[in-house]
Amino acid sequence: DQQVKQNSPSLSVQEGRISILNCDYTNSMFDYFLWYKKYPAEGPTFLISISSIKDKNEDGRFTVFLNKSAKHLSLHIVPSQPGDSAVYFCAASDGGANNLFFGTGTRLTVIP
Amino acid sequence: DAGVIQSPRHEVTEMGQEVTLRCKPISGHNSLFWYRQTMMRGLELLIYFNNNVPIDDSGMPEDRFSAKMPNASFSTLKIQPSEPRDSAVYFCASSLWGGETQYFGPGTRLLVL
């Protein structure tokens, strides 16, 4: 059973517009959430994270929002750039790295 | 700075053969993770080492899979015998003290015919 779900396998956005990637989770014990970005033939790289005590964390063009009541996480990229085209994985932890659960990923394509 | 190094990058083998995947974590990191990525299930944790000791191997699919970490700079994931359903991309990652921010290697793409 997938405890972290990314229901959109792909997303296309025009350059300069906002990209919104969504993630839902089922385990209310999750207290730390991360987004990873993956380019072809490379491993995932850490992008941004958020603790459950916050509802927003911002880093440059990237903002992660957490809605605990809805068990929903989203990543906003503004403005989107062609170099952002990659697969984005959402991950969640319930207190230990060995309990890091990943979603199946969303492929973002930013069209120039 | 060298990141996590994995070898081989690609492996094609026949069913029944032994497969050994290798990983060198980032120097100074004391936690190492092996993941498997498939289309259906995404990234799944197979096993986790802390200070070279296996902490959680509950994700290892069956006895055909084994992992070792003989020292702080090297780990192997072995599949014996391999089966077509083992075809996937296998990632190794490392972190400091099991921190959630893990650094991934480029992966080994395994195809079992």
Concise structural overview:
Chain A is mainly beta and 112 residues long. Chain A has strands at 4-5, 10-14, 19-25, 32-38, 45-51, 56-59, 62-67, 72-77, 86-93, 100-102, 106-111.
Low-confidence stretches of chain A: none
Structural class of chain B: mainly beta
Mean pLDDT of chain A: 93
Subunit organisation of the chains: heterodimer
Element string of chain A (H = helix, E = strand): EEEEEEEEEEE
Distinct helical segment count of chain A? 0
Strand content of chain A: over 45%
Structural summary, described in words:
The complex is a heterodimer of chains A (112) and B (113). Chain A has strands at residues 4-5, 10-14, 19-25, 32-38, 45-51, 56-59, 62-67, 72-77, 86-93, 100-102, 106-111. Chain A has 112 residues and is mainly β. In chain A, strands 2, 4, 5, 9, 10 and 11 form a six-stranded mixed beta sheet that branches. Chain A has a five-stranded antiparallel beta sheet with strand order 1-3-8-7-6, with no helix packed on it. In chain A, strand 6 (56-59) and strand 7 form a beta hairpin. Chain A is globular and about 40 Å long. The termini of chain A are far apart. Chain B has 113 residues and is mainly beta. Chain B is built from no helices and eleven strands. In chain B, strands 2, 4, 5, 6, 9, 10 and 11 form a seven-stranded mixed beta sheet that branches. A four-stranded antiparallel beta sheet of chain B has the order 1-3-8-7, with no helix packed on it. In chain B, strand 5 and strand 6 (53-56) form a beta hairpin. Chain B is globular, with a radius of gyration of 13 Å. The mean pLDDT of chain B is 92. Chain A binds chain B through residues 2, 32, 34, 36, 41-46, 49, 89, 91, 93, 96-98, 100, 102-105, and chain B through 4, 31, 33, 35, 39-45, 48, 55-56, 91, 93, 95, 98-107.
